[in-house]
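Could someone model zinc ion with this protein?
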Amino acid sequence: MNIHDLVIRGGTVVTASDTFVADIGIVDGRIVTLGTGLDGREAIDATGRLVLPGGVDSHCHIEQLEADGSVHEESFESAARSAFAGGTTTVIPFAPQFKGEPIAAHADDYRARAARSPIDYALHQIITDPTPDVLDREVPALVGAGVRSLKVFLTYDPLHIDDRQFLAVLAAAKRVGATVCVHCENYEAIRWRAEALLRAGRPEPASHAVSRPKLVEREATYRAIALAELVDQPIHIFHVSCAEVAEEIARARARGVKVTGETCPQYLVLTAADMARPGREGAKFMCSPSPREAGDAEGLWAAIRAGTLDVISSDHCGFSFGGQAGKWLNGADSDFTRIPNGIPGLAARLPLVFSEGVASGRIEVTDFVRLTATTPAKRFGLYPRKGTIAPGSDADLVLWDPTRRVTLTNALMQHAIDYTPYEGHEVTGWPTLTLARGQVVMRDGTVTATLGAGRFLPADLPRDARPRGLVPDGFDAALV
Ligand code: URP
Ligand code: ZN
Ligand code: ZN
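Reply:
Sure, complex below.
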């Protein structure tokens, strides 16, 4: 009897906890059966392949409006192509807010852009102007609509908020039940060093790393954690670049504070030396925090193995290198303070993490799934619909060849950006087929991305993001 629409037959299924050989039976885009000898109207042979849950990229910038009126060059359509090419089936991009404006000023525009998405998505909301109206009226309405994570920046003009504003965001998130994600770098220290670098005649991309050493990230991470502890509001630290910062997270976790951490492939593969390449080339590697020194990646892997960092996202940014809209938006001779921060990495994320992690013996394949799919889905309230292979979950699956060796090129990334910072990087392990809710969206590199096929995923509040019920001295300032 053909009870399934589709069966993925004979692959090695990998979840965050187990690997086992099984068939996967799919009906109406959902997994309904794990077993052997399953029948279906159609079948895909997965013999010799790993079968992984589709990647969940919980931090990527897609078609994002910036305060200067520019828009990231990766559209939802091109981002989906790139994501599917690299085995990712869920993305969480960012809706903007700018100072002096309510969230509503750009909400309809961003929702309309996202409605064209070929890939399933949840949303983070950036908060740059936490007025009482934003926090008491707009944020609760957002949470009611399924947007449950707020991102704040402790640095960057014109996005950064001060400590008092950060406390207000934390308190509002606690009252309403939202996750707070934090960009941790010290605004004033970076400004101070950047101004000195310019006075010293050092405007080139390599100065980016010098302007923001590990210390400024570490200080802001400690401060963010301390303020979150004061409010008793869990926080998630984005894009941790080095072991010294992870150490602050580990220290806080050891005393019971609910803080979690993410890192990204750029901190595992790139270094500050990449920004010192001749001419303007260094701009291709500029992101914040800065990539660090050779050797720092091992410290991050240790923090990953220890569970201090438990999400690896791409922090994908669509700024092209040629032309005038991307890295040279502010002029071809821009100094490092005027070059947009961020680099593309949607498609490269899974191959880089598999290769550097699993193929290199640093982590197990179950860890790979946990870091790139399961925990991101849990952290942002999408689990078990996303991030695992189980009856009832969406049939977002990736067939993965663990031994295929590939040299990364920009063409393989299938994004709208004219370069990849990973050009020429050799990886072992590659996605050969991607299914999104039971539909083949990539087979041997050929991608199908249907406009509007992606669904908005309303987020739940995960346990990780719930307050402990413990404030210093018992006085809960967030609730009065
Ligand atoms: O350099 C980066 N990471 N740019 C993107 C914005 C952010 O801070 O996540
Ligand atoms: Zn950030
Ligand atoms: Zn980012």
